[in-house]
Structures are given as structure tokens and as C-alpha cells.
Amino acid sequence: MITLTTIADVRASCDAARAAGGRVGFVPTMGFFHEGHRSLMRAARAADDFVVVSLFVNPTQFGPNEDLGAYPRDPDGDRAVTEAEGIDVLFTPAVDEMYPAGARTTVHVDGLTERLCGASRPGHFDGVTTIVAKLFSIVGPSRAYFGRKDAQQLAVIRRMATDLDLPVDVVGCPLVREVDGLALSSRNVYLDADARQAATILSGALYTASEAVVRGQRDAAAIRQLVVDTIGHAPQVRVDYVEVVDAATLEPIEQITSDTLVALAAFVGKARLIDNVTITFAAGDPTPDLGVLTASSGMQEADH
Ligand SMILES: Nc1ncnc2c1ncn2[C@@H]1O[C@H](COP(=O)(O)OP(=O)(O)OP(=O)(O)O)[C@@H](O)[C@H]1O
Ligand SMILES: [Mg+2]
């Protein structure tokens, strides 16, 4: 594995891989790797000839009062993880490599970015789409891998790739959870022991809601309320939003009769956490996809 810090060097190495007939896979991240990140790296390693992981704590996707300065970092540990996963290139650019003075261009995806996390994090998705578009342009991947923990981000990136005719297959990968259900997140490091315990209510509430849909509840408002009530007054937990939306468009729905995303964000102790379940109707009956547990054997297939 090589670690590169300049756009020119990454372009040159990806050009060389393509010239040798290889397909490039790409995993964009903000580092402080956990099993969620590793699952994306493994999906890429299994499918692609040449795998690039970027590690960039992107300042433009943090709000002015958010945790950019405190964001957890472990460059040596992260390098060891990418080595162990057999990654070809780890791209760790400095902020001024990605945002040189004079830059005036932002990529904005309309509509999908206004609800859910977009409502409480104005500008966040513009930061995400702008950096991901730049990274796609630098790496030129055939496939790029994103986790379904960030379901809205995945929907927004898919929309961007379609709308801009980007020649990349955006691959959604299973949400990876701790054995007690908590979605893995670099920000879980902000949780003290009590908050860590309290955080399990988030996935628990989504599980309860999924069960209700499987048993026949189709009313979106009732499912939303069930999630809110299940979280209730759990200590240290304050709900930011709970929404029941169309899985592709993220538009609010009234009845749960086609692919649906139940998504939430909550402040738990010092962390703002997100979680979700997608309920699909491919086989006629509702099938909740809550992801996979880190301790479970074997990962589900990534979908396209
Ligand atoms: N638990 C998870 N399961 C699957 N994919 C994940 C998980 N957590 C993060 N990812 C994916 O890893 C990629 C990089 O995300 P990122 O580096 O922001 O990690 P993160 O854990 O989401 O950190 P934070 O919660 O602080 O934003 C994204 O595509 C994200 O969806
Ligand atoms: Mg994240």
C-alpha cells in the first residue's frame, strides 16, 4: 500500500491502474476506522482490481458549531487498518490540497438534502456532494462504496451521480452494528459508559417499528410515533428527528406500501447519532433491513 497526499499522485496511480486494464474501486471516509469502514473496504477489495481509500475530515460538511475540531483522528491506526485490508492507495490530502484559495464551486442536490439531517445541518450535504464529486473526479472509480448507516447520504450521492452522468456505480453496503444493536460510528467515541448504554434505545426503537410493520401496521404517522414513544424519555437521549419517507426520493409518505426508510437522529450524551431501517417490498411482504452485527458470520451482499 502507498499513502499519497497530492491530487496529482493519486491521478497518476489510478491512471496507471486503468492503463493496465484494472477497474478502480473507491471508499471515501473521514477516518477513525471501525468495522463499518472495513466492510466497505472488503466489498471494494473483493470486486475491484485497484482500491483507493480516502481519509479526509472534510471541513465544509461541518456546521460552524459542530465538532470539526474535536473529530476523532488516529492516522497511524488507520494506516494499519488499510494495510491489513489490502488497500492499494490511502489518500490523505491536506485541507488546502482539496480547497485551494479561490475555489468558488459547490455541488448542490436539491430537495433530497432539505429534510432529515439536512434540516438540522444546513449546508452539510453541499459539503458532502462537493467533496465526493471532487474525489470522484480525482480517482475516477468504476465503483464507489457507501454505507447504509448514512442512508440519506447514499440517496443524495446516487442522485448526484445520475444527474451529473458520472460514470461510477454507487454501491450501497449493509449497516454494521455492535452486538447490542448500536450502529457503528466514529462518533460513538464521544459516548461515556452511561450514554453508550442509553444509545441502544435507538436501534431498539427501529426494531420495534420494523416488527409493527411486519405485523401489518402501514400507517407512517403511527410508525413514526411508535419510534418516538419507544425512545420516550430515555436518560441522556434527545430526539432530533424521526421520519418515515420514500426510500429513494426521501419524500414523506402516509402509507408504508413500497420501499420505505425509517430514519432518525438523536443527541445521546455528547454525540449526535443517526440510525435507520429500510423496509423493502420486493417479495410483496415488507422485509426490514436493519443491517448486520459485527459478530455475525459473513456479510450480506452489497446491492447496486
Ligand atoms: N456502521 C456502519 N455501517 C456501514 N457503513 C458505515 C457505518 N458507519 C459509517 N459507514 C460508512 O463509512 C463511510 C465513511 O463514513 P465516515 O468516515 O463519516 O464514518 P462514520 O462512522 O459515519 O463517522 P461519523 O459518524 O462520525 O460521521 C460512509 O459511507 C459511511 O456510510
Ligand atoms: Mg459519517
Detailed description of the structure:
Residues 296-304 have low confidence and may be disordered. The radius of gyration is 19 Å and the shape is globular. The chain has helices at 7-19, 35-47, 75-84, 95-98, 117-120, 124-139, 151-163, 193-198, 200-214, 220-231, and strands at 2-4, 24-29, 50-55, 89-91, 143-147, 169-173, 176-177, 237-246, 260-268, 271-280, 287-289, 292-293. The strands form 3 sheets. It has a 6-stranded parallel beta sheet, with helices on both faces. Strands 8-9-10-11 form a 4-stranded antiparallel beta sheet. Helices cover 35% and strands 21% of the residues. Helix 9 (200-214) runs antiparallel to helix 10. It has 304 residues and is α/β, with parallel strands linked by helices. It starts with a strand and ends in an 11-residue tail after the last strand. The structure holds adenosine-5'-triphosphate and magnesium ion (MG). Adenosine-5'-triphosphate (ATP) binds at residues 29-30, 36-37, 39-40, 146-147, 149-150, 173, 175-176, 183-187.
Question: What secondary-structure arrangement, pairings included, does this model have?
Answer:
Blueprint (H helix, E strand, L loop, with lengths): L1 E3 L2 H13 L4 E6 L5 H13 L2 E6 L19 H10 L4 E3 L3 H4 L18 H4 L3 H16 L3 E5 L3 H13 L5 E5 L2 E2 L15 H6 L1 H15 L5 H12 L5 E10 L13 E9 L2 E10 L6 E3 L2 E2 L11
Parallel strand pairs: 1-4, 2-3, 2-5, 3-4, 5-6, 7-12
Antiparallel strand pairs: 8-9, 9-10, 10-11
Bound molecules: adenosine-5'-triphosphate (ATP) and magnesium ion.
The site of adenosine-5'-triphosphate (ATP) has 18 residues, from helix 2 and strand 5.
